[in-house]
Design goal:
By secondary structure, the chain is of the alpha/beta class. The chain is built from 13 helices and seven strands. The protein has helices spanning 2-6, 26-45, 50-57, 61-68, 76-86, 96-102, 106-117, 136-144, 152-164, 183-187, 193-207, 257-273, 277-290; strands spanning 18-20, 72-74, 118-125, 176-182, 212-217, 231-236, 241-245. The strands form two sheets. A five-stranded mixed sheet has the order 5-4-3-6-7, sandwiched between helices. Strands 1-2 form a two-stranded antiparallel sheet. Strand 6 (231-236) and strand 7 (241-245) form a beta hairpin. Helix 2 packs across helix 6 and helix 11 packs antiparallel against helix 13 (277-290). The longest helix has 20 residues, at 26-45. The chain is elongated. It starts with a helix and ends with a helix. Residues 2-17 have low confidence and may be disordered.
Length: 291
């Protein structure tokens, strides 16, 4: 589920023009092996040595060998230059559609697939703005504050993965999305005033969508059923569902109907305790006006 996926460490080196693939990612390894083989065969077919090819596209010989061996994830620029130099007619450049997904952690891709199929997504986030709602700069500030720190390259990969999940807002037919956020989270200026303002503006934008319900849990609420932490629920068109909660079932995802009913009860109670959707948008507007 989201919290586990969003907090997973990535492997990579910020100072190189490419990234390492997760050794546990079988799909990603297969994609890179296929792309690398295509690059090597096309390079050899035109009679170019690795050093010569690297110089032509602006990268080192060592990286060329690593990419061709499926050991390094090439950037989009690498593939586009390779396509041009090798005269591939766009075939190599087109592999970026699969390669770019390999940049994302396996758990994030799996979460994205679930969100892409869900007809309902409901989240109570206790200590941060949910990843589906974060602006890139806010996500960058949140991820960049982690301890021990991520490398700059890892931070950018995680931001890209988080933003990629937000295509859920572009789906048609649109899924029903529900979010409950804590007032304290919205008052914390993560990333500085401008980043904070942009994040509040994003919440207002999303909260006004016809398929989105956005609510704020006020600090003045005397009864709060969400003190155990985050709750997430995803429902699918075939009637199945998956959910998790920090305070239930050891925090693990569950598809058991009885356990899901418990999570639905908890989430429904939290929604009833929070400000109404209209009151919540007014509250966010007021916060924005205070900056």
């Amino acid at each position: 589920m989201a919290v586990e996926a969003e907090s997973g460490r990535l492997k990579g080196e910020a100072d190189e023009p490419g990234w390492e693939v997760d050794p546990d990612d079988e799909w990603g390894i297969a994609v890179l092996a296929t792309v690398g083989r295509q690059l090597r065969l096309r390079r050899e077919a035109v009679g170019m040595r690795a050093a010569e090819f690297g110089a032509a596209i602006g990268y080192g010989e060592d990286l060329v060998y690593k990419v061709e061996a499926g050991k390094r994830i090439p950037r989009q620029e690498y593939l586009e230059r390779a396509d041009e130099v090798l005269g591939a007619g766009g075939l190599i450049a087109a592999t970026w559609e699969d390669v770019k997904k390999v940049r994302y952690p396996k758990k994030v891709r799996e979460l994205g697939k679930l969100e892409a199929k869900a007809v309902e997504i409901a989240v109570y986030q206790s200590n941060s703005v949910n990843g589906l709602l974060q602006t890139p700069d806010h996500a960058r500030a949140v991820i960049g504050a982690a301890q021990p720190p991520y490398s700059p390259g890892d931070v950018e990969r995680m931001v890209a993965a988080r933003v990629a999940r937000q295509t859920v807002f572009e789906r048609s037919p649109a899924p029903a999305l529900s979010f409950v956020l804590e007032e304290g989270v919205l008052r914390r200026p993560i990333g500085g005033t401008m980043v904070w303002r942009q994040q509040l503006e994003r919440l207002l934008e999303v909260g006004k969508l016809h398929n989105v319900v956005l609510q704020v849990m006020p600090m003045s609420c005397e009864t709060h059923s969400g003190t155990d932490g985050t709750i997430e629920l995803l429902k699918f068109s075939d009637g199945t569902a998956v959910g998790r909660a920090d305070g239930e079932f050891n925090g693990r995802p569950t598809s058991d109907p009885k356990q899901l009913r418990i999570l639905e009860l908890q989430y429904g109670t939290i929604r009833a305790q929070a400000l109404s959707p209209r009151e919540s948008l007014v509250f966010v507007e007021q916060l924005l006006g205070e900056t």
